[in-house]
Input
Amino acid sequence: MTNSGPLLLRAQLENWPLAAPFRITGYTWTSLPVLVVSLERDGCVGQGEAAGVYYNGDYPSHMLRRVESIRPTIEAGIDRRSLQLLLPPGGTRNALDCALWDLEAKSSGCSAWQIAGLEEPRPLLTTFTCGADTPEEMGIAARGYPGARAIKLKLTGELLDADRVRAARVARPDVWLGVDANQGFTRASLEQLMPVLVEAHVALIEQPFPVGQEAWLDGLQSPIPIAADESIQGIADIGLLAGRCSVVSIKLDKCGGLTEGLAMARAARDLGLEPMVGNMLGTSLAMAPAYLVGQLCSVVDLDGPLFLRSDRSEAAQFTDGFISYPKTRWGIPDT
Output
């Protein structure tokens, strides 16, 4: 955080149509609204994008109002450390934090990965997600990712889930397979589904139970690792789930940006947990800082741009099951 001084803030809402409706437990998207923030100092511009956290009521329109309410503080000059104290975790802080990282890289001559103390980023194996649908359509969706090496299925706690898993496994017998309930299971429904998951060689169960019902994990005999997503919003929550899950899902919109995302990945490892990076949908601008967190993670789920009808010009590349950023300008010094 080498730069200081006044900033010029620009903030706007964008809406990105999805190629097809995307359904999870209790929610369906047909388009993706996002907040985009730009911060300029001395001719250098940093950008950040956030979709917010829908289940917390953290919507881009609300985020924009919050940004405007603190505009004088931001434009007077703020750094990442001060931002952590000014705003709580969530989409607003994510957009601003990522813009500050990008601005620092643009103006300092060091890439964001260097500032973060990371090795030069490598392509990451990412999951490709099949939204909840009929078993037939989910099988078709799984086959629609011919280069994928890892696929994640959105499940809902319905009896149909068993056939969804079987259909996806028949369609793609070759891939790593995970399932994500988005809080949709009960203890009974998961135990009933478990033999099907084991038979299908499912490798990860993400957020099976509702937030507030983490005690349902106590004593659960699961031969498949459990990941906590909605139950872990930020770094303060990680220790509370140790012993109940083995994987921590980090999303920048939840935790409030790259600064806390990196800290979460390192804290999870220190506690013997496996960090995972995910997304709340988004363009390649939103995935770029998450890609840096992914360099520290065992599981990567950064396929959000693939659900959009179009993406930004500086788009992530998805090749042979991997995501990479060969042409991005986010987090790269100006030349």
Summary: The two ends are 19 Å apart (CA to CA). The domain at 124-324 is CATH 3.20.20.120 (TIM Barrel). The chain has a mean pLDDT of 96. The chain has two domains: 8-110, 124-324.
